[in-house]
Amino acid sequence: SLGKEAMIAHVQHGTSAFAYRVDANTLQPGKVYFTVDKAGTVSAIRLSASSGYPALDTRVLELMNTLPGTWKPATNGAGEAVEQEFVFSFGTVGC
């Protein structure tokens, strides 16, 4: 409900302490997949690619589990709610 910008801001703010701990030359593109289910609940949050910094990966997963706002589920052609998977990139790409 708050939009993509609020999600990005939540993760950026929650990981700001890592700015001085991470070497930009070794930071890798991390990816987190998550599902918004038929009820609009975020579930199945999983790391699919590491940033190369396990503590940062763990923190991003924690933040994804506490996303602000609510989610509107996707719908199919009949207007029925369906699950939808998303990917959130961080590290050298994304936030």
Overall body shape? elongated
Helix percent reads 10-25%
User: Quick one: how many beta strands?
Assistant: 5
Tell me the number of helical segments per DSSP (H or I, 4 or more residues long). Answer: 2
Report the sheet with the most strands, covering strand number, pairing sense and barrel closure.
3 strands, antiparallel
Kindly state the mean pLDDT as a whole number? Answer: 91
Alpha carbon gap, first and last residue: 20 Å
- Rounded to an integer in angstroms, the radius of gyration calculated over CA atoms is 14 Å
Structural class: alpha+beta
Strand order, biggest sheet? Answer: 2-1-5
Ranges where pLDDT stays below 50 over 5 or more residues in a row are none
Write the layout of secondary structure elements.
Layout lengths: L3 H11 L15 E7 L5 E8 L4 H11 L9 E2 L5 E2 L1 E7 L5
Antiparallel strand pairs: 1-2, 1-5, 3-4
Helix pairs in contact: 1-2
Describe this structure in words.
Helix 1 packs across helix 2 (54-64). Strand 1 and strand 2 form a beta hairpin. 23% of the residues lie in helices and 27% in strands. A 3-stranded antiparallel β-sheet has the order 2-1-5, covered by helices on one side. By secondary structure, the chain is an alpha+beta fold.
